[in-house]
Design brief:
alpha+beta; two-stranded antiparallel sheet; 3 helices; 28% helix; globular; hydrolase; HNH; endonuclease
């Protein structure tokens, strides 16, 4: 995590503020679980044209597992990936990934 913008004071402040506002993992909450968030992730990766310092709506609080899964599935095109941002289903059996075809493929 030593690369720009993660090594800046602005990012550290933004990260701490997002974790204070959303201390639980977003993906785990969608699954009906409670897990503390330890990472703040860009909804749209910087490499894909995302804002390095977006508003809170452009960030997600995630646990380590969900952050790693999302990064490997979406943000690293050099790796074979499923393309699903989040694996799993909610308590009703619906896919939690907002980009899933079930949701209309949006996100």
């Amino acid at each position: 995590m030593a690369e720009w913008p993660y090594n800046t004071r602005n990012w550290q402040r933004l990260r701490l503020a997002k974790l204070a506002e959303n201390p639980l993992c977003h993906a785990c909450e969608l699954r009906g679980r409670i897990a503390p968030a330890v990472a703040v992730d860009h909804v749209k990766a910087i490499k894909a044209g995302g804002d390095p310092f977006p508003s809170f709506d452009g960030l997600m609080s995630l646990c380590e597992r969900c952050h790693n899964e999302k990064t490997n599935a979406v943000d690293r095109p050099d790796r074979a990936a499923s393309g699903r941002r989040f694996k799993g289903f909610d308590v009703h059996g619906n896919p939690i990934d907002p980009g899933d075809d079930w949701h209309g493929g949006g996100a």
